[in-house]
Design brief:
Length: about 200
């Protein structure tokens, strides 16, 4: 199936509306188009242009095979902040096809030993805009991914807005992918010339 082809939902499906984050039901028979399929979800648009996120567990509603969870190979060595950052690179913004690390949403990570054994992972992250309704959705994605790392007993994700996020926080690869130049604006050379 090609991206952006119309798909008729095969069953009712719970979704997260973008950008509000509100949970709602899209009825069976509704037509959607897949805009993005990265990480553990699909970003789709409806016939009126509204966007929502469908979790991978509901892929069958789109007529797609539900991804089979395959156990990841055991990581060797002690849990490190680099392991945490690598796992965070598997979480994607629902509107922008870039992972949250390269997008610059991760402000800090920590790995702290717990007295009773195991580790606590702490993350301070932001959103691209204050009041983003998807904050709780992304926060839950991060908590779920990090809780599966070896030796993790506790995950604490804090959404912060100080300092405010800005495009300068993105990695060079993300800026290139999204068409930003080094001054954080749109790359003017990629725009069509109108005469």
């Amino acid at each position: 199936m090609k991206s952006n082809e119309p798909i008729t939902l095969r069953r009712d499906c719970e979704v997260s509306e973008i950008p509000s984050g509100a949970r709602s039901i899209v009825k069976s028979g509704s037509v959607v188009r897949i805009m993005k399929s990265l990480g553990s979800s699909f970003t789709v648009t409806n016939e009126r242009g509204g966007m929502c996120r469908i979790d991978a567990k509901d892929a069958d509603a789109l007529g797609l095979a539900t991804p089979v969870s395959t156990p990841e190979p055991a990581r060797e060595g002690a849990l490190t902040e680099q392991m945490v950052r690598d796992e965070l690179k598997t979480v994607f913004d629902p509107e922008i096809p870039v992972n949250i690390v390269d997008l610059g949403l991760i402000y800090a990570t920590s790995v702290i030993p717990l007295e009773q054994g195991g580790k606590k992972v702490g993350v301070k992250m932001s959103m691209t805009a204050p009041g983003c309704g998807m904050a709780n959705v992304l926060k839950a994605d991060v908590e779920g991914k990090l809780s599966r790392l070896p030796d993790v007993k506790e995950v604490d994700v804090e959404v912060v807005f100080d300092p405010p996020w800005h495009p300068g926080r993105m990695s060079e690869a993300a800026k290139l992918q999204l068409g930003f130049d080094s001054d954080y604006g749109m790359d003017q050379s990629s725009l069509p010339v109108i005469r």
